[in-house]
Amino acid sequence: MVKTKEEYLEKAEAKKKDTQEKRKPKTKKKEKNVSLFSRIHTYFKGVRSEMKKTKWPSKKEMLLYSSATLLFIVIFALFFTLNDVVISAVKQLVR
Question: Based on C-alpha coordinates, what's the Rg of the chain?
Answer without folding.
Answer: 33
